[in-house]
């Protein structure tokens, strides 16, 4: 069994949206979070969905699920104070139905351009390697600096990748790691970093170039343009 754990608990401060969180902004009349959920709803390898949502928007989300026919959602839980806390809350919400050897794909609600193949690659990789971290090779040189003013080092570009999502694991493995982190007082940016902090070997899955995260206003407009382009390809049979 495989469950998609969707993180939609952020308030989108960098988006400067006063009306609503970024995951509820619409592209062509459909909220970003729904675009994201549809990929997991229609994937035959995904059995259930758990959503971690901004508490004040849970009822609105329930209405959107009914409106757009999203039926695989088993639970919606409020987010925590940080992304780390929110993911842990989502994992705890799975306790009453998930088995230790079930697969969980942790994904951002504001990454709506994921596709079926990437979901499948994550599931298949977990079955072989026990985890899968979606990554994209960096296209530009990276600089490391300790003070933000001087360059400490420039790692070889062909060794550098950006960790994206989904980040996928066996449920028992990742839940145990978050429980250890709670005991040790450790919080992480994402699940991949948490695994790294505990020296776990991670397996990379190649991301599609379109698998962007909508974080800032420019990201929203780029994403909308990509949807326009994809729609044009379908219309003209490209």
Category from helices, strands and their pairing? alpha/beta
* Poorly predicted sequence stretches spanning 5 or more consecutive residues: none
Helical stretch count? 7
| CATH architecture designation | Alpha-Beta Complex
Q: Radius of gyration from the CA trace?
A: 18 Å
Q: What share of residues is helical?
A: 25-40%
SSE run: EEEHEHEHEHEEHHEH
C-alpha end-to-end distance:
35 Å
Tell me the β content: 15-25%
How would you concisely characterize the structure shown here?
The protein is an alpha/beta fold and 238 residues long. The chain contains seven helices and nine strands, in the order βββαβαβαβαββααβα. The protein has one domain (2-236): Alpha-Beta Complex (Spore Coat Polysaccharide Biosynthesis Protein SpsA, Chain A), CATH 3.90.550.
